[in-house]
Design a protein that fits this description.
- Helices cover 29% and strands 26% of the residues.
- The N terminus is likely disordered.
- The protein is of the alpha/beta class.
- The strands form 2 sheets. A 7-stranded mixed beta sheet has the order 1-4-3-2-5-11-10. Strands 6, 7, 8, 9, 12 and 13 form a 6-stranded mixed beta sheet that branches.
- The chain contains 6 helices and 13 strands.
Length: 259
């Protein structure tokens, strides 16, 4: 059984990488990152595998390790506590060790949900609510989910498992000429012509080592600051929020009513 603890427990010295989910993806990511650290491809202090089930696949298969912890909590509860902790500055070493998040391809739009909660705490007397992203991004795959999240992808083919999105696409065998983040920037400009829309606030997952992608907590903090700036104007505005990679992404609208 892996070491089970709560997010509020004292953290070991050094940076932390939080893997969202302890199922098949999280188990694979943990194995790969530990191999990468052993071989000098990446450096970090502790892996946190976050799952609400203390008997999840990662707990059953990975065993114990001195620099890995299983955090048994709901994802949103964990993020609220973990992201609220004070931290040092941004990552400066390419294989260095700022705190980071490894998202799961099957998770809900957690970072957007976290921004909604942050905005409601920041402006308790103001309307803060999700709004459906009802304008298409124009990617080959473009679907509006019932909860208002728009899922987009440049791939209209079956991507290889754990693809690192290299410069040469392994599916087309041609240069990858697209970036979801750029498309969401263009979408934000189009939305802003209809009604005030800020952003986009993007959490961009990039390959870091051994097939594992992540984004730094400094990127999350910058996104929260961008929402704060958009709301500080005081007028009604929307903020486009996306958790993306080069090829795929989830995008949502955060509506801030007039102060």
């Amino acid at each position: 059984m892996a070491d089970v603890s709560s997010a509020s427990a004292a953290s070991p010295a050094g940076s932390e990488i939080a893997i969202i989910g302890g199922g098949c993806y999280g188990t694979f990511y943990a194995r790969q990152l530990e191999r990468a650290r052993e071989r000098g491809a990446i450096d970090f202090g502790t892996l946190l595998v976050v799952d609400r089930d203390q008997s999840c696949q990662a707990a059953r298969e990975l065993g114990t390790a001195p620099r890995r912890r299983l955090i048994v909590e709901e994802w949103g509860t964990f993020l609220d506590g973990w992201l609220a902790r004070p931290r040092a500055g941004e990552r400066s070493d390419p294989i260095g060790a700022a705190d980071a998040i490894v998202p799961s391809p099957l998770m809900p739009h957690l970072m957007y949900e976290w921004l909604v909660r942050r905005a409601r705490d920041r402006w308790p007397g103001r309307t803060v609510e999700p709004r459906p992203l009802d304008v298409e991004a124009g990617t080959p795959y473009d679907m509006l989910a019932p909860d208002g999240t728009r899922y987009v992808s440049f791939a209209d083919w079956l991507c290889p498992t754990h693809c690192v999105e290299p410069g040469i696409c392994p599916a087309t065998r041609a240069p990858r000429t697209w970036e979801v983040g750029e498309r969401l920037e263009e979408l934000t400009r189009r939305l802003n012509r209809r009604r005030a829309t800020a952003g986009p606030v993007l959490f961009t997952c990039r390959h870091r080592a051994y097939g594992v992608g992540m984004f730094d907590v400094s990127e999350v903090q910058a996104g929260d600051a961008a929402v704060a700036r958009a709301g500080a104007v005081g007028s009604s505005t929307d903020v486009l929020v996306g958790t993306v990679s080069a090829c795929h992404g989830a995008s949502s609208l955060l509506h801030l009513g007039a102060a």
